[in-house]
Design brief:
This protein is α/β, with parallel strands linked by helices and 391 residues long. Helix content is 30%, strand content 23%. It has twelve helices and 17 strands. The strands form three sheets. Strands 3, 5, 6, 8, 9, 16 and 17 form a seven-stranded mixed sheet that branches. Strands 12-11-10-13-14-15 form a six-stranded parallel sheet, sandwiched between helices. Helix 6 links the parallel strand 11 and strand 12. Helix 4 packs across helix 5. The relative contact order is 0.16.
Amino acid sequence: MNAVGPSGRHVRGAVLRRLDASAPFAQSMPLTIEDLELAAPEGREILVRIEAASICHSDLSVVEGVRPRPTPMLLGHESAGIVEELGPDVTDIKIGDRVVMTFLPRCGECTQCQTGGRLPCSLGSHSNEAGELIGGGFRLGTLADTGEQVHHHLGVSGFATRAVVDERSVVAIGHDVPPDVAAVLGCAVLTGGGAILNAANPTPGATVIVVGLGGVGMAAVLMALALGHPVIGVDAVLSKRDLAVQLGAEQAFDPASAIAEAARSELVIDATGNPRGFETAVALTAPGGTTVTVGLPAPGAMSEISPLGLVAEARTIVGSYLGSAVPRRDIPKFIDLWRRGRLPIERLISSEVSLEHINEAMDALASGAQLRQVIRFDDAHERTTTGENCG
């Protein structure tokens, strides 16, 4: 295992020290802003100056303890930035590139990587579970007060001024893509948009129902609209239903009303990460139709569905992790649609927050009041917060 030694590099980021904090997080403060050493990139790794990081429900799930991870851990997995340094074996990335970071590195060699995105990379999944980089070990240092090793979050740890990541965790993009738009490409758009693009395969003109209108679900709405499909949105939160209609959805219902109105379709996307939401999505799927589920409920969460209904109505349920995406294949497709004005990704961004208010941002996300809050980093902010110009 690679150890982090003195490097002269520093990173300032949001570290989750424990998994037992209770809401409101603005009071329990599970995330603390820490200054850490950052080792030089090794092998196929790169050093990235983070420009923007958005806050995803998967980050919140770790904070809530719903998806346990090794701690302490520097959180954040939906980020974008500028490459500043290359490891000796990097082949596809250049210094100065703007890159989107993706939360599942792909080795490109394992059996699961040969499924065209349907299955997650086995090596990348293992390293993510261990809180390490795919090349092995850590490039983040230890906490000053406890000496504990700080783990990487999903190979990214993007709630920070800089990150060392593997080149297999990034996609280089054009500088015309703004940092905040670039950030949400790495998870929300890959997962929600990818579910439409890769897992759903709707027939031309078919209505798409999206259950759960958070960042991922709303990205699915945008992608379905971009491909010319009528959309019906379903969510318990009125403001999210209203936004879906503003974006172009024909109708939006709360879950009970959707079922009462018999709003059924051949394709339903479940983006709730909730067992009851999954049940709603299955109930809204028409005979012969397909339910694609992309949410990540708690490991022990269970749903009840009728096997007879699946058989009698010849329906299909498809699981889609990260939108069944291959990031280097799919992100350019999303960017092309964005450039042509057909995929307004910026509409997913609900507000900007500071790194210092990360705990309050988690509360806002948990309340359902926000889609994607974005932390913006810039040189002036970094010089102030890291103390690089201090005496």
